Structure formats: structure tokens, C-alpha cells
Description:
Number of strands: 2
Helix content: over 70%
Number of helices: 11
Order of helices and strands: HHHHEEHHHHHHH
Strand content: under 5%
Radius of gyration: 19 Å
Largest sheet: 2 strands, antiparallel
Structural class: mainly alpha
Shape: globular
Distance between the termini: 40 Å
Amino acid sequence: MEADIKLAFDILAFTSVMVLIVLGLGVIASMMGVFNFAHGEFVLLGAYTLYVFHERTWPLWLGIVAAPFVLGLVGFGVERAVIRRFYANPIMAMLATFAIGLVVREIIRGLLGGHYKAIPEPVAGVVSLAGLDFSVWRTVIICITLIVMLASWFFLARTAIGLRIRGALENPMLARACGISTARLYAFTFAFGSALAGLAGALIVPLYGLSADVGIRFLVQAFLSVMLGGVGSFEGPVLGATVIGGMAAGLPWLVFPVLADPLVFIIALAIVKFRPHGLIAKGRF
Length: 285
């Protein structure tokens, strides 16, 4: 029984990590129709921001707060300089983000000297409940993920600016005729998705350590989550991340660990085969 509870907590913690990473990718893909292949490197930049704070012995909590703002500015700059030129050609937009990701990754690799860096948890230790010990930091990640997920949904689905964003992305010409600056909303949406990636990177790096390839570790699973959940809704990528995260954390307990990752892909691809539009398919938000 104790082992089952610990396993459920580990699955919940890893699923929260996946949801955090997928959230920003899903927002950009669902609302803008752009698959950001630099998303993994945006997660990396968020992790590197926390590393800078650690190296300068600044408060780590301040680094976690700063990371989404730093990546928001980076995302805004990338959208204004590159992405906005390729809205009519999504394939070119994907290739452009892939190239940006390569540049960012190699720059960070050079800054790290190719080494692995460990960053301590801002809140270390365990919390005891019913005789069982649970990691405090993983508990914090679960709580922050729930707050961020609910706040993002409320902002995009229930606020006036969220309505403007959805309207501008659904029918840009009509939005412009109504006096809405679609260019600003596109930039804001890309910056918002990038900020979520930065927050995810800062939160997970104490668990997994910092290397130039930390973003790639989750990128493929994140894209698979978006495809599995379905592009075009807020709930789809979140559901996809929950399924992929649950399988990735739970399957190693059921099969040989070496078979777990391939099995996750096989199951997910089988579902996509029968539901090509994903588990939740509908119009943008």
C-alpha cells in the first residue's frame, strides 16, 4: 500500500512536469498554428536563468520568478524578428524555430563548457504524511502546475484580452477591421507561451540538473503530448501531457525499463492512428 502511494505521487509529480512543459507549447500551437521547435531550448533558457542566480548566490526563488519574464522578453523578440515573417508558411516557421533552437543550445553548451551542472532545490527536504515521506520540491511543482494551469485557462478563456486573442487568431481580418492590433496580440501570445516554457525550465532544473540537452529530453514527449491531446484547444495538450506523463512514469514499474519509453510512443501513436485529430479536437479555444 505504501509503495502504491509513493508510486502514485511519483507519477503525479512527473505528470506535472510534463504538463508544465507542454502548456506553453500547446498555447502557441493551438492559438497560432505554429509548432515551436525551439520550445525545448526555451525550457533550457529558463533553467539557465536559475543557474545564473545560483552562481551569483542570489535567492533561487527570485530566479524562478525572473525566468518567465526573461523568456517572455526572448519570445517577444523572436516573434517580432523571425516568426511574424512566416505566418503564411507554417513549415518555414517550424524550420526557423528549429534553427533558433540549435543556436540557443550551442551557445548554452559553450557557456557551460559542455559540463553538467547541479542546482539545489530552493526548498529541500521531505514532508511527512501518514507515515510517508514526500519530496517538498516535487509537491511545490505539483501545486504550481495546478495554479498555472488554472490561471492560464482563466486568462485565455474568461478575460477580455483572452477573447481578443482568440478572435484575432480565428479571424485576423475581422479583428483588424474592429481596430484590434493583431500584430501585438500575436507577439503577446508567443511571449506568453515562451514565458511558460521559462517557468517550466526553472522549476524542473533542480530535479534533473542542467546540461545543454535538458530541453531535448522532454521535447519529443511534449510534441507527442500535443498531437495526442489534439491541437486547437487548451484542454487537449493538457490531457495529452497527463497521458504521456503517466505512462512514462508508470510503465517502468510494469515492464522492463528499457522497454518503457518505446512502449509510450507505440501506445500514443496507436491512439493517434485511430484518433488523428487527438483526444480532444475542436476549434481554437
